[in-house]
Amino acid sequence: MTDAWGTVTAVDDQHASIHMDEIGCGRCGEPGGCGGKHLGKLLCGTPRTVRVRNPDHCGVGARVRVAVAEGSLGRSALYAYALPLLALFAGALSGSACGGELAAIGGAVVGLLVGWLGLRRAQRQILRDPRWQPSIRP
Fold first, then answer.
1. Among 11-20, 31-40, 44-53, whose mean pLDDT is lowest?
2. Please, which pLDDT band fits residue 79 given cuts at 50, 70 and 90?
3. What gap in Å lies between CA 84 and CA 74, rounded to an integer?
4. Residue 132, φ and ψ in degrees, nearest 5
5. Domain ranges of the chain
6. Long-range CB pairs of 112-121, under 8 A, 24+ apart, other chains included
7. Of 117, 120, 110, 119, which Cα lies nearest the Cα of 83?
8. Neighbours of 18 (CB within 10 A)
9. What does UniProt give as the signal peptide span (predicted)?
10. Spatial contact of 24 and 4, defined as CB atoms under 8 Å apart
11. 2-68 maps to which CATH number?
């Protein structure tokens, strides 16, 4: 599990809004850390607020650890970048094999659309799977 600290800012029903103290997992300085915290500071000046399930009914102001399943960030990045790109290339190659340059461009557009639809489907599946959702750790 990868986790980061935050403070509960709001509670509703079974969920809590958590203001994250840091961007990234907090392992940037450790060996094997990705350094994403530095990129996050560059692109996102303010800390993020996330909404997670709150099974322990933590109250507003509570300091909590938000955990994300190991591998979920890499899997998400793979889906977000590789799937549409591979579909675009496959469409362009298919179009090129069927015709000329215009067919390759059309195939690339169709491939990109198919990749986007595949990404939307993968996103829906991941959102339904509780193993890949962030959670509050005791």
1. 31-40
2. confident
3. 16
4. -100, 5
5. 2-68, 73-131
6. 112/84, 112/87, 112/88, 114/87, 115/83, 115/84, 115/85, 115/86, 115/87, 115/88, 116/84, 118/83, 118/84, 118/87, 119/79, 119/80, 119/83, 119/84
7. 119
8. 27
9. none
10. yes
11. 2.40.50
* In the predicted structure, residue 19 carries a pLDDT above the cut 60: yes
Per the listing, tokens 């969920």 go with 15
Query: Which residue in this structure is represented by tokens 């899997």?
Result: 75
What's the one-letter identity of residue 130?
A: P
The total number of residues written for the chain in this structure: 138
Residue entry with tokens 């958590």: 18
The maximal CA–CA distance of the chain, rounded, in angstroms, is: 63
